[in-house]
Amino acid sequence: MKTEWDYTQLAEAYLKRPDYAQSAIDQMLQTAGVKKGDEACDVGAGAAHLTLKLAEYGLKVCAVEPNDAMRANGVKRTAQFEDVKWFEGVGEDTGMDNDRFELVTFGSSFNVCNRQEALKEAKRILKDGGWFACMWNHRDLTDPLQKEIEDILKEHIADYSYGTRREDQTEVIRESGLFHDVVYVEGTVVHEILAEDFIEGWKSHGTVQRQSKDKFDFINAKIRETVEAKGEKYIKVPYTTRIWMAQRK
C-alpha cells in the first residue's frame, strides 16, 4: 500500500529517533481510561516507538503501517509481545473493523494524512466513547545545539517549514464534528543520546528530506560537523511530547 510520503530510505535511521516522554504517555492513557487488555490501534506505527509503549502498558495493539521497511522494523522490535499484530494500511483506510478500539493513536503520523479523512476513519474504528490521540516529539529549539541545527536548515532550505507537525491540532479535530472537546497533554524529557545516534537520526526526517531535495546529504553532513565539533560522545537533547486527544461522540 503506497502513500505520497515514502519512508523506505529512512527506515533504518528511524530506529535512532527518541522515545516520547513517558509522563505524557501516562497522562494520555489515564485520560482515555484504558486498562490492561483493552484494544488500541496505532496508525502509522513506523518502527514501533509508540506501539511499544502501548504494549508495555498491557494493551492489545493493532499496529498499522503502510511502508514495508518501516513495518519490518516494527515487527522485529515488538516480537516479544504476543498481543501486538501488524497490518498494512494508512490513516485514511486502516482496514480495521468498525467500533473495535478503545484508543486510536497517531504517533508522528497524523501530519502525513488527510487529517479530516483520518479523523473519520478513527471514529469509524473506535468504540462509542473511545479516544483518538495524535502526538509528536518536538525538539526544544531554544537549546543552543538545536538552535545551531535550525540555523543550518534555514540557511540551506528556502522557506523551510515544519508543515502541520508543529501546529496546534485543536481546531482540525474540532472542525470534524466527530469528537468531544479536545484535551491537550504534554510532557518534557531530556534524552541523553549517543552523538552518533543523534546524527544518524537526522537521516530519518522526511520533512527535511522532502524540502531539501538534492541538498539532504549535504545538510546531514553539516549537522554531523556541528555535533562532532562539540567533542562529546553523548549529548543531551530536550524534547516536549505534545498530544492532542478527544473522545468519540
Write a brief structural summary.
The chain is α/β, with parallel strands linked by helices and 249 residues long. The chain has helices spanning 11-14, 22-32, 49-57, 68-77, 115-125, 144-156, 170-176, 195-201, 206-212, 216-228, and strands at residues 39-43, 60-64, 84-87, 101-107, 126-139, 183-194, 234-247. 37% of the residues lie in helices and 24% in strands.
CATH superfamily: Vaccinia Virus protein VP39
Number of domains: 1
Q: Which structural class do you get from the secondary structure elements? A: alpha/beta
Count the strands? 7
Strand order across the biggest sheet?
3-2-1-4-5-7-6
User: Quick one: CATH class?
Assistant: Alpha Beta
**The biggest beta sheet, please?**
7 strands, mixed
Q: Any idea what the shape is?
A: globular
Low-confidence parts lasting 5 or more residues at pLDDT below 50?
Answer: none
- What is the percent of helical residues? 25-40%
CATH architecture: 3-Layer(aba) Sandwich
What pattern of helices and strands is seen along the backbone?
HHEHEHEEHEHHEHHHE
Looking at the structure, the CATH topology is: Rossmann fold
Could you give the distance between the termini?
A: 30 Å
Total number of helical segments?
Answer: 10
The gyration radius over C-alpha positions equals 18 Å
Beta content comes to 15-25%
> pLDDT average, as an integer?
92
GO molecular function, one term: S-adenosylmethionine-dependent methyltransferase activity
Organism: Eubacterium plexicaudatum ASF492
Protein name: Methyltransferase type 11 domain-containing protein
Family: Belongs to the methyltransferase superfamily.
